[in-house]
Amino acid sequence: MSGNRGVVYLEPGKVEIQNIADPKFEDPRGNRIDHAVILKIVSTNICGSDQHMVRGRTTAPSGLVLGHEITGEVIEKGPDVEMLEVGDLVSVPFNVACGRCRTCRHGDTGVCLTVNEGRAGGAYGYVDMGGWIGGQAGYVMVPYADFNLLKFPDRDRAMSKIRDLTMLTDILPTGFHGALNAGVGVGSTVYVAGAGPVGLAAAASARLLGAAVVMIGDFNPARLEHAKKVGFEPIDLASHDRLGDLVEAVIGVPEVDGAIDAVGFEAVGHGGGEQPAIVLNQMMEVTRAAGSIGVPGLYVTEDPGAHEQAAKTGNLSLRLGLGWAKSHSFHTGQTPVLKYNRQLMMALLHDRLPIADIVNAKVISLDEAPAAYQQFDEGVAAKFVIDPHGMIPA
């Protein structure tokens, strides 16, 4: 292993490919760790959460190596790793989790208490998430490997489906988590806000869980066209300012059983300006009494680029009284990927969920990543999968 390169955030709107250090068996504080492995990256995806940082909407520092959606091959392992071998092909949950603390032992790996000195929860290549180096690179170190990593049972079969399996690191479990938390089940009517990759993954998960109708709302015509192409009901938010009327035009009533916010804090309203609480408020308007709202979309504690002063510290103009009056259930936070990734892996391996086609996966080289970030920021209807070593079959 030598000549590691990675996608590095420099300043708002700018990333570049740089030579970076080879990964070491060390935590972010420089302490030796023996429970880790070194991976050769097979695939690593660009996520909407990465885009928030690249837009300058977080306190991400210059020089941050990006990338929390990682699939790779074990090429080295520490002496405490017992369940994995060199050559294994594995999926990496974006959560860095110890497996030992109170929250991990309860299954809430998105808020591990030990991998981040600043707050609960850790992630690779992400602001305020513990300083773990990201995986949009050639190689990366993964700690607590026996606990965190999901080994694919058959390498050749996995490589033949790698465009699907690469989604197990984040967006598919995140979408599934949002659908479960929205109470989706057989015969449900569901509204998903946002036709980006996470919204499409949430819609696909709702369909897998038995939803009768899945609607996806967005302002982006290309994304709505793609959502319709893969079998969902597109809701053109530019066509009307009352979401309930748009829902009623599809299912005959202005409310749904469950709603999923896959947009987050950079939401925009009809005038084109940002309204960071608008999606959550719309969710409460269209979700039936005693219904549930899943919120996999990202909300932050600090947003230096916010258009509203209160939103700079995560304060939103939320119509909570409406949700309270309708007895809504809300569920927020980082997805605990380990709760879902094995079951979803089986669904992918057995052709139950063509997630790569649903999110329109586009494989690119590492050198193409900066241009892909620009295209993603412009709203292209695609999910970019980086192939740093040319290992993904055409």
Automatic annotation (TrEMBL):
**Recorded E.C. number(s)?**
1.2.1.46
Q: Which domain of life is it from?
A: Bacteria
Q: Which SUPFAM superfamilies match?
A: GroES-like, NAD(P)-binding Rossmann-fold domains
Task: Give GO MF terms, alphabetically.
Answer: formaldehyde dehydrogenase (NAD+) activity; zinc ion binding
The Alcohol dehydrogenase-like N-terminal domain covers 35-153
Q: What class of enzyme is it?
A: oxidoreductase
Q: Does the keyword Secreted apply?
A: no
Q: Locate the Alanine dehydrogenase/pyridine nucleotide transhydrogenase NAD(H)-binding domain: which residues?
A: 182-238
Instruction: Look up the record and name the cofactor or cofactors this protein needs.
Output: Zn(2+)
> Which keywords has UniProt assigned to this entry?
Metal-binding, NAD, Oxidoreductase, Zinc
Record-linked InterPro entries = ADH-like_N (IPR013154), ADH_Zn_CS (IPR002328), AlaDH/PNT_NAD(H)-bd (IPR007698), GroES-like_sf (IPR011032), HCHO_DH_non_GSH (IPR014184), NAD(P)-bd_dom_sf (IPR036291)
Under the heading NCBIfam families, the entry gives: fdhA_non_GSH
Which family would the database say this protein is a member of?
Answer: Belongs to the zinc-containing alcohol dehydrogenase family.
| Full protein name | Formaldehyde dehydrogenase, glutathione-independent
Q: Can you name the source organism?
A: Sphingomonas glacialis
The gene behind this protein is: fdhA
